[in-house]
Amino acid sequence: MARAESDPNTATQARVDSWTWAVRLFKTRSAASAACRGGHVRVNGVTAKPAQPVHPGDEVRIRTGGIERIVTVERIITKRVGAPIAAQCLIDRSPPPPPREILASMPRRDRGSGRPTKRERRETDRLLGHTDR
Q1: Is 75 exposed, middle or buried (0-12, 13-18, 19+ CB in 10 A)?
Q2: The model's pTM
């Protein structure tokens, strides 16, 4: 007797952590779940828990590494697939990243270096265009 296999193309919903991992937005499913629990994943504008279902047409926003990815679900998959197939399962609507010149010109403080000095605050305010009080 033949076993009835479920066709992955007929799925109408999937867990958001599983789908984001399957389309290669995260390296591991546990990283996808952690991002959901941390509030970095939103589905249709609402913060998503890892088990929240996604459907074709849903908008998924992911914030990782200071960059926001905005994708629209085209096809539901639950198994990790190759990059060309994964690209067919979503529409990437992410804004383009800022130019490298702007990123290089922004001041950065070393992590753990404490609070900025008064001079550094004035330089930052001048750079951002804030007026003196």
Answers
A1: middle
A2: 0.69
